[in-house]
Amino acid sequence: MDLFESAASTRAEKEGPLPHRARPGTLQQFVGQSHLLGPGKVLGELIRSRTAFSALFAGPPGTGKTSLARIVASSAEAEFIRINAVMSSVGELRQHLREASSRLGRSGKRTIIFIDELHRFNRSQQDALLPDLEEGKVYLLATTTENPNLAINSPILSRLRVFHFRHLEDEELVAVLHRGVDLIGQDSFQPDDDDLLSLAREAGGDARQAQLLLQTVHDAFGRLDQEVIREIRGGSHLIYDRAGEEHFNIASAFIKSMRGSDPDATLYYLARMIEGGEDPRFIARRIMIAAAEEVGNADPLALVVAESAAGAAERVGWPEARLILGQAALYVACAIKSNASYSAINKALDEVKKGKPQPVPLHLRNSVPRGMKSDRQYQYPHDAPGSFVDQPYLTKPMRLYRPKDVGTEKKIRDRLTHWWGKDWFGDE
Fold it and tell me: Which residues, 6+ apart, have CB-to-CB distance to 69 below 8 Å?
């Protein structure tokens, strides 16, 4: 670091953004993650023993992953090298690794390489770390906001302890905000705990966002009260990454809420996606899939409503599309549920994949090969009363579709029993 970089760092410590200045410097100052840092917890004991180790901190943004990595390096008295996962090349990474190896041989000082958002490293960059990690020449501390099992190479994961961070509770964020108030250091700006709690609730469990909100409130209003809270509420931060893990978490909760027939949860997660800027076509597809998978023939109109809503939402666009998607999602959530058609097609595919296809019965074939004669003639159902003929359609009968005794499927079940007999569904 040259003279100007050093001066810039010193100035940032005094005048930089509040989240940067409020970073905890010791484990005693760190707030949250008691499930990882409490007495008897592995991560906490490793840090208190002043041991260098390799680990991956996974979890939402603003939960202290980077700050704790700095604390680990400081407590272990190791050289701390921070690498930008977006801008660093494999060549730069290997240079740091060579220097770390030389430092260890020259002075015995350990090196902790810190990579924020490790999932942004491509496979070759991640693989470049393996030899030095394997030999213990460096320690790796890394963070990710993604699911480690999906975003990080398996060989890297096998060499790291993975610790999962959680969103901070509102009361924990109040403690974080108190530190921010102390750093602002003005007698005229001393919010009470109730107002700090209200501000904390706007941060969504994100300590960085809480400090940014506090700084915004101080700079814009010079005070914090309920009137100010109402003013900033419309612009508060909402965690939703359309390309990341939270995207799939919210979408999963949305689908499961429709499946579970909870209209309120369905609307809440729909609102999360809308406010997060989700593509309305993605939402519409999830509703259509749920209509077919979760409702099926118990209420065939559900798929009609979902498909109609998809077309209407695409024509109308935001913000009015929220009305259409909300109506369709509520219809699916409140509809009678049956996954019988979903299970039936999956069973049929499983039968086909077994690799022993049934030959088509001769009386159903388009033409019968010369020399072959069917002992049965195809009967045209519409020529029979009720447009039904009791004739086989499979060489070996199998029961794939089992409609449930609910909604429209009850009528389907009764109709199949009337046509094919009471033993149609076997021992069920």
Answer: 57, 112, 114, 141, 143
Domain range 33-164, CATH architecture = 3-Layer(aba) Sandwich (3.40)
Please report, for the chain, the start and end positions of each structural domain, with discontinuous segments joined by +.
33-164, 170-233, 245-334
Q: Do β-strands 111-116 and 161-164 pair in parallel, antiparallel, or remain unpaired?
A: unpaired
Instruction: Write the DSSP symbol of residue 396.
Output: S
Secondary structure of residue 140 in the 3-state scheme = strand
Whole-model pTM?
A: 0.59
59-117 tens-digit pLDDT:
888 899 989 988 988 888 778 888 877 676 777 778 888 887 788 778 777 888 888 88
Q: Considering the domain 245-334, what is its CATH architecture?
A: Up-down Bundle (1.20)
Residue 216 CB coordination number (10 Å): 14
Structure tokens belonging to residue 103 = 């430092």
| H-run or E-run covering 163 | strand 161-164
Residue that is written with structure tokens 């924020």 in the block: 116
Among the four given CATH numbers 1.10.10, 2.40.10, 1.10.8, 1.20.58, the one describing domain 170-233 = 1.10.8
pLDDT tens string 16-36: 788 888 889 889 999 999 999
How far is CA 175 from its chain centroid?
Answer: 28
